[in-house]
Amino acid sequence: xxxxxxxxxxxxxxxxxxxxxxxxxxxxxxxxxxxxxxxxxxxxxxxxxxxxxxxxxxxxxxxxxxxxxxxxxxxxxxxxxxxxxxxxxxxxxxxxxxxxxxxxxxxxxxxxxxxxxxxxxxxxxxxxxxxxxxxxxxxxxxxxxxxxxxxxxxxxxxxxxxxxxxxxxxxxxxxxxxxxxxxxxxxxxxxxxxxxxxxxxxxxxxxxxxxxxxxxxxxxxxxxxxxxxxxxxxxxxxxxxxxxxxxxxxxxxxxxxxxxxxxxxxxx
Length: 268
Ligand SMILES: C[S@@+](CC[C@H](N)C(=O)[O-])C[C@H]1O[C@@H](n2cnc3c(N)ncnc32)[C@H](O)[C@@H]1O
Ligand SMILES: [Zn+2]
Hints:
Elements lengths: L13 E3 L2 E3 L5 E3 L5 E3 L14 H12 L4 H14 L5 E5 L5 H9 L3 E6 L2 H9 L5 E4 L12 E7 L5 H7 E12 L5 H7 L16 E15 L2 H9 L9 H8 L4 E14 L2
Parallel strand pairs: 4-7, 5-6, 5-8, 6-7, 8-9
Antiparallel strand pairs: 1-2, 2-3, 9-11, 10-11
Helix pairs in contact: 1-7, 2-3
The structure holds S-adenosylmethionine and zinc ion.
S-adenosylmethionine binds next to loops.
C-alpha cells in the first residue's frame, strides 16, 4: 500500500523510477542522496532547522553508540507493537540514527521525515532501506490511519496530526529526558543544576498505554564527544560563560543518561 500523499492535492503518491507522482501530475524527484522533498510550498532549504555542522556533529555522536540503550529500547518496543511488513514512521528523524538502528533489526516498512533538509540528506545517505522525506509535523504527507507504529524522539509534538496518521490499533512512542538525564553535564555547566521534571507533551486525543524507563551511565573522554553532546542539548543556548569555561577545561565527563519512553494509542 502507498502511504504517502501529495502535499499539494492530498492524492496518493505512487513511486516509479526515482519519482513520486500523484494522479494530478504533481511529481517529486528522489534526490541522489536518497530522500524526497515533500514540503508543501517547497520552502525547504539549508536554512531550515539545524545547520550542517550541527547535523554532522549529532551524527558523529550518535554513531558512536552513546545513546544506544535508548535505540535498543525503542526498537524492542516497536517490535512488540507492530508486525512484519507494517509501516513504521520516525517523526522528526533528524539524521536517521534511530531509524537505521530499528530498520536493521526489524522487518517493517520504515519511513522517516524531518523539516531540516540537512538532516534528511544525512538520513538518506544511510541507505538503510527506509524512505526519508522532508516535511513538517503540522502537515504530515501521510494518509489517515496508515501507520502502525510511529516514534518521536526529542522534537516538537503535534497531537492532532500524530493521531490522524496512526491506525486505530496503532501506537506512537515518544521519549522525554528522565529526571537525572545528563546530570553530570549540568553539574559542570551550572552552580545549581536542576533535575528534569519529566513532563510529557500535551497529547490531546491520545492515551498512555505504557511507560518505559531507560537508564545508563556514559563516560566521554574526548573534547569532540563532550562538545557534540553539549551542542545537542538545550543548555547549548543558555549557559553562562563560567560554565562554558569549566566545560572547555573538562578532560572527561561521566554522566547518567535517562529517558522515559511513553507509548500512546488513540483515544476512542
Ligand atoms: C533534537 S532533534 C532530534 C532528532 C532525532 N529524533 C534524534 O533524536 O536524533 C529535533 C529535530 O526536530 C526537527 N523539527 C523541528 N521542528 C520540526 C517540524 N515542525 N517538523 C518536522 N521536524 C521538525 C529538527 O529539524 C530536528 O532534526
Ligand atoms: Zn497532487
